[in-house]
Design goal:
single chain, alpha/beta, Rossmann fold, 6-stranded mixed β-sheet, about 20% strand
């Protein structure tokens, strides 16, 4: 069994004239990331690896989640290729995961995340919002063979307000 948790980065700021990769979280994003991360702690597997896009908004979201999960932020594995909006690229990255790991928590971007959860999950989601959490289980022991899985849980900021 392989379990994948996809988390879209929290709401980011457009105020400063920065390149897209350098945009930080805004206050709403910080608050939403704290709320969602505190809500999902009980639903996390006991062991997992954490991958994050190198974009500032994704890495800041990952740090907030890790702190609230009481996990060392140093364990986050940053991957340049997770800075993608293409679900085919995201699928390729996930399928390349080492089979020694059964549980992956991934911080990334839309449209890739919404497209991925609709292709591989069993529940249609119109749009995974910023700070959105989606957990999918796959009945396989090989990441390369993941196919249609079961969407176990979703947590979106609007559900907590």
């Amino acid at each position: 069994m392989k379990n994948l948790i996809l988390i879209r980065h929290a709401k980011s700021s457009w105020e400063a004239p920065l390149i897209d990769n350098d945009r930080p979280l805004n206050n709403r994003g910080i608050n939403d990331a704290h709320q969602v991360s505190q809500e999902i702690v009980a639903d996390l597997p006991k062991t997992f690896i954490v991958w994050s896009s190198t974009a500032k908004r994704a890495s800041e979201t990952a740090m907030i989640f890790m702190q609230n999960m009481q996990c060392p932020v140093e364990s986050i594995i940053y991957k340049d290729d997770l800075y993608t909006f293409d679900s085919r690229q995201l699928q390729k990255i996930i399928k390349s995961c080492n089979n020694d790991y059964d549980n992956v928590i991934l911080f990334g971007h839309n449209e890739a995340i919404t497209d991925f959860v609709n292709k591989f999950g069993d529940r249609y989601i119109d749009n995974v919002p910023t700070s959105g959490f989606v957990s999918i289980a796959f009945d396989t022991n090989n990441w390369e063979n993941i196919a249609k899985g079961k969407t176990l849980k979703t947590v979106f900021p609007k559900d907590l307000k």
